[in-house]
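Whether sequence alone determines local backbone shape is best considered at the level of individual chains. When preparing material for the folding task, we compiled for one chain both its residues and its backbone structure tokens. No coordinates are needed to read the tokens, only the vocabulary itself. For completeness, the protein is quoted in full, as a sequence line and a line of structure tokens:
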Amino acid sequence: MKIEDIVTEQEKLLQKKFLEIDEIEMLNTKKVLEAFQKYQVSESDFASTTGYGYNDIGRDKIECIFADVLGAEKALVRSQFISGSHALTVALFALLRPGDLLLSISGKPYDTLDEVIGIKENASSLASYNIHYEQIDLVNDDFDEELIVEFLRNHSVKVIEIQRSKGYSTRKSLSNDKLASIIQKIRRVSSDVIIMVDNCYCEFVDARSPLDIGADIVVGSLIKNLGGGIAPNGAYIAGRSDLVHLCAERLTLPGEGEEVGPTLGINKQILQGIFMAPSVVASALKVAVLTAQVMEQLGYIVEPRVQDERVDIVQNIVFQDKKKLINFTRGIQKASPIDSHALVEAWDMPGYDDKVIMASGSFTQGSSIELSCDGPIREPFIAYMQGSLTYSYGKLGLIQAIKYLNGEE
């Protein structure tokens, strides 16, 4: 049977799952539209500011919209953030002081934070400022609640960091329900500890934000979910007003904080991005579900499986074979609109210990909400596939990748 026929046949089995995704999309779309209307977005808000960026009304409205959509008191949404990892770094340096303790309760964070925290030696790390770090690993893909509570009773922790998405690990991503349970237990022990959530890849996957369930601050990238494939760069920090203000003063300078920062003509793209984000995230989720269905039928291990709860836009395919990982990734690149002619190779990507192969034939470099696929060259050779601006492009990309994997292209 042709690959196209296999995909179409499996697609017919997914209509109930797709309907569930559509329902969440509608809730998030309504939330975004009401925020645009509440703050009376006008064409004049697209205007650009330069220099210091004083009195940028459009920028201020963007941050009000993000705050409303995420359930925050305040949001900092800036193109001056280079990436989600940069925004996380700004937040950590803003919230922690020498002698403070940072505790990760979801295991080790992304590799890109190793030198930020000081897990790997760096003269500019938190560790170099005498900021201490401890971590508690997950148990069976869930928080080790007893150990976390015990640790908090015996240590003075300033910031708890939670990374919801799996990164390049083999664990499952963390749902808002699991988050709500552990936050409730943390608050019984400590009302003062700052709970910071790395929400990258997770926004609009369901109708809630971590801030709705008790987190103090969330961080994410605009070249992932909330940028809708339109924002060309940037990231956000949102949450408690006092904490976001500290982050703003770390991004710019004390005394000026969020009052400065030129937008250089990016307002329209950020506004269009979050406006389209519920639909784009829904498309990415449908592509992930289709990929799980088809690849499992073809005999591969996938995570999450079709029937599992979706927490983020990432779909794992476990190839257990280096060549298959490389070929599938190359197939995604071949199906891309940009640089489809390129033959991707594994390379020493900044911030990662292993070589990484990455297909991202996208309009924005490194954009994960556009159809992309990447993975470290290490066992068990997992492809981390995510995104797709439309379902149709994602379906075509999956077909192309399987053909390349099977040597048909």
